[in-house]
Amino acid sequence: MKLKTKNLLTLSEISKKEFSQLIDYSIKLKKELKKGGNKPILKNKTLTMVFQKPSTRTRVSFEIGIFQLGGNAINLSSNDMQLSRGESIEDTAKTLSRYTDCIMARVYDHKMLEKIAEYSDVPVINGLSDSFHPCQILADFMTIKENKQKLKGLKIAWIGDGNNVCNSMIYGCALAEAKMSIATPKGFEPDTNVVKEAKKSTEIEITTDPKIAIKNADVVVTDTFTSIHNRDPKRIKKFLPKYQVNSDLMNLAKKNAIFLHCLPAKRGSEVTSDVIDGPQSVVWDEAENRLHTQKALMVFLINA
Ligand code: CP
Ligand code: NVA
Question: Does residue 186 lie within any of the structural domains?
């Protein structure tokens, strides 16, 4: 159980087979945990987490995840580190990798993550950058597999901002060979290079019409219109009311479609309460699955 890549900065670094193995192993770890507990396969291993931005799910799922596998995590806010006083990323990465078995970092600029990975001797995991959120997408596809029992050939609709989570979802669809239809306002499309790359493996449709994107979808996904790195409230006007996932829009998807949102959500903005708190929503399983996929990922990288 290991990945060819040393780090997981984007899902483009892993193969279709590795992606599927990670998801299946996450499902196994979840069952094992519910039956009484996981084996201490990461005994005495340590994870160092560096946060430039706030987090609830990523921090807690990584910390509890490694604990449940017999290891430990420490949490560092970049403001409390010498990084904030000008110590270089190179020196920080070299130092941390002398203490710890794995580094997980949540950063603004994706290039900072690439630099940490370049200078670290131990695996580096992207816990969210302004460009990608691969850990979220592992949990999303685990949740989809639990609900649909397959991934290949499904239609996934992304409605709203073509942001970091959307970019990773596109790579996820390529790995799963699921079709993706993305509806964003003009100027809010996902990364064109990511779309180009993913099109080699699957169908990716980009439209400005959410009704086209959601038609016959098996899975409907959205995210906030204002990300941590993109907080200008004026953006919201570009999305509302057209790109809100409400019951009228949701009714255009397949009857048995599921609704995903990485959270945190803003009810009444990108999604209405009747959808996110309604029967088609699987957002709490999705949030829980961060724990199981984080564990699988750490086992695959640290035990490699
Ligand atoms: N979905 C997600 O990454 O949540 P946090 O920002 O709370 O970690
Ligand atoms: N797109 C959001 C995801 C948060 C988990 C952000 O970057 O803030």
Answer: yes
